[in-house]
Structure formats: C-alpha cells, structure tokens
C-alpha cells in the first residue's frame, strides 16, 4: 500500500484542482482529514479545508497502486474519473460534482477529487420504499438517456465476459458438494442463452447499483462508486437494487419500465427474461469471485440463487 500524502502535498494538489474550477486562487489550508464511512475498493477520505471563513469538505479517492481489479468488472480510479468527465458531468440527472484528478508529487499516486455531499445519507437494505423508488427513477432515466448512445471507452459486457463468470462457478461445483447439483445445469443454460443479455438494446450502466452505492439528500439521488460502469442491458442495475426483495419489487419494476420506455413500446416477456438473466449474472459474479474459503459466507445468496435457478429453468 502507498502511504496517503502528507497535508502539504495534498493541499497543493487540491488547490490546483480548485483553481481550475475558479473556486480559489490561493493555496488552501487543510483543517481535518478522516476516512470516509462509505466502503470503497480504494482508500478514501473526507478532507475539510477553510475557504472565505467557511469550512468546506471534499471527497478524495486514491488509486494507491491498486489499479483495475475483480476480473475486469471494476476499472479503477482512472476509469471512474473518465466516467465522471465523459458521462456524469454531461448527464441531465443530478450527480456529484467532479473536480478532477492529479498525480501526487511524492508517491506519484493518482488522486480523484469529488464534491462531498454534506448531510447526505446512504441507502441501505430496508430503506423506505419511496426512497428506493427515487433511486429506481434515477437509474431508469439514466438508462433511457444513454441507450445506444454511450462513449466507446466503456467496458462492454459481451458473451466472453458472461461466460467467464459462469465458467468460474462451474469450476467450483466439485468442491461445493452434491446439494448444489443444479449449478451445472444453470451455468450451461446461462451460457447457451447469453444472447438475451448481449443482443438486446444496450445502455450505460452503473454496474453495482446497490443501495450502499447511492446517497440521498433532500430527496435528490446521488449514485457513487462508478468503478464498474459499463455497457450492458439496463436490467443489470435494476437487478442489483431489488436484490433480496425480488418478490416484493413489483412497484419498482413498474416504475423502471414506465420511465425507461415511456411510450410503452417494449416486449414485457423479453424484459422479464433479461431481468431474470441479470439476476442470475450477479449471483454468478459474486460466487465466482469469492475466495474458496469464504464460500460458506454466501449461504443466503445460494438460497436466493437456487430459487432463481428453479424459476429460470422451469419457465
């Protein structure tokens, strides 16, 4: 791990970025630094500085020598910064302000700086339904805006990508035991029918649109952690936000389809297939990416996964 920068180095970097945005033409004075409470793949901290007799906070995320990881579905800090620059800052939807990136003088580490949304709260499983519905409205509008209209630098979820995760889970079946007999059949079905996910209209997705990656302040939604942004079917993001409450998500699904296709011109059966395949994809990815000695911690996920498998294989 690369040590985080000393105050003077960090102040120089932040002052340069703030100057580029016309915020200040003087070197800022850092008052406080503390780790961000929101989990992230990369080191993050909230940096408070003084400006015109006011205390202002910024969100700082460090590459810290980690780079892209998780078998290609997370692109790293540089990739996330491009998503803010090329997509989010151009989006008609509310997003966190992006100040830019800089290379730190001493360590040569990369730093990405964002607005810190003071007073925002993180969504969580069990969040009030009306709040989750706002998050569904945000992502449905985002998908509609970027359908077939996305930058070329984004990772594309193609057949090889989906097959990779199914193959990883297949490789685990011998060690999982006989009670997971259904996994081989499911993986084969998933690979045989992956065109459901690859030959439909594609859009720009968040990639991990879970409640923990969504902030809300004064009824405004701010999705964060865009390391997994990609080109894929939008149902993948819908699958993540309703995960664990699929049986009670009819309202969220209705909201999504209404905003995504306001003219009602979509095939409901095909949408249901894409959503089901997207839900299966997430379980393949989480289980396929788990360390062998931690598979037992996914017992609940296996139960949900089996129910999805029965539904997919019998419909």
Task: Give structural notes.
The structure is a single chain. With 315 residues, this protein is α+β, with helices and mostly antiparallel strands. 41% of the residues lie in helices and 17% in strands. A 5-stranded antiparallel beta sheet has the order 1-2-3-5-4. It has a 3-stranded antiparallel beta sheet with strand order 6-9-10, with helices on one face. Helix 3 packs parallel to helix 8 and helix 4 (159-176) runs antiparallel to helix 5.
Topology:
Layout: H1 7-20, E1 29-35, E2 44-51, E3 54-62, H2 77-86, E4 98-103, E5 110-115, E6 121-122, H3 129-146, E7 155-156, H4 159-176, H5 182-192, H6 195-198, E8 203-205, E9 214-217, E10 220-223, E11 230-232, H7 235-241, H8 250-260, H9 268-288, H10 299-314
Parallel strand pairs: 7-11
Antiparallel strand pairs: 1-2, 2-3, 3-5, 4-5, 6-9, 8-11, 9-10
Structural class, by secondary structure, is alpha+beta
Radius of gyration over C-alpha positions, nearest whole angstrom: 21 Å
Mean model confidence by pLDDT: 88
Low-confidence stretches: none
Question: What does the main sheet amount to?
Answer: 5 strands, antiparallel
Head-to-tail CA distance between termini: 49 Å
Could you state the order of secondary-structure elements as H and E?
A: HEEEHEEEHEHHHEEEEHHHH
Read across the widest sheet, the strand sequence of neighbours is 1-2-3-5-4
Helix content: 40-55%
* Total helical segments: 10
Overall form: globular
* Portion in beta strands: 15-25%
């Amino acid at each position: 791990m690369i040590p985080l920068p000393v105050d003077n180095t960090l102040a120089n970097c932040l002052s340069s970025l703030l100057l580029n945005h016309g915020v200040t033409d003087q070197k800022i004075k850092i008052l406080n630094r503390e780790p961000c409470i929101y989990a992230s793949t990369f080191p993050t901290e909230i940096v408070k500085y003084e400006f015109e007799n006011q205390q202002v906070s910024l969100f700082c995320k460090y590459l810290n020598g980690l780079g892209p990881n998780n078998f290609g579905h997370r692109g790293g800090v540089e990739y996330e910064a491009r998503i803010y620059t090329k997509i989010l800052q151009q989006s008609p939807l509310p997003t966190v302000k992006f100040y830019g990136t800089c290379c730190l003088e001493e360590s040569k580490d990369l730093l990405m700086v964002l607005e810190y949304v003071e007073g925002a709260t993180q969504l969580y499983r069990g969040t009030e339904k009306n709040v989750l519905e706002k998050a569904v409205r945000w992502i449905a509008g985002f998908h509609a805006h970027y359908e077939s209209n996305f930058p070329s630098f984004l990772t594309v979820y193609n057949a090889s990508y989906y097959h990779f995760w199914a193959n990883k889970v297949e490789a685990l079946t011998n060690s999982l035991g006989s009670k997971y007999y259904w996994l081989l059949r499911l993986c084969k079905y998933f690979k045989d029918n992956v065109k459901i996910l690859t030959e439909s209209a594609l859009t720009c997705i968040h990639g991990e649109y879970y409640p923990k990656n969504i902030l809300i302040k004064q009824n405004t939604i701010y999705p964060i952690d865009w390391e997994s942004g990609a080109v894929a079917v939008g149902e993948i993001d819908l699958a993540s936000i309703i995960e664990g409450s699929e049986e009670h998500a009819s309202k969220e699904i209705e909201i999504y389809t209404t905003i995504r296709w306001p003219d009602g011109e979509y095939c409901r059966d095909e949408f249901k297939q894409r959503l089901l395949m997207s839900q299966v994809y997430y379980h393949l990815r989480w289980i396929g990416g788990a360390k062998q000695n931690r598979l037992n911690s996914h017992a609940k996920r296996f139960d949900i996964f089996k129910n999805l498998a029965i539904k997919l294989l019998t419909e």
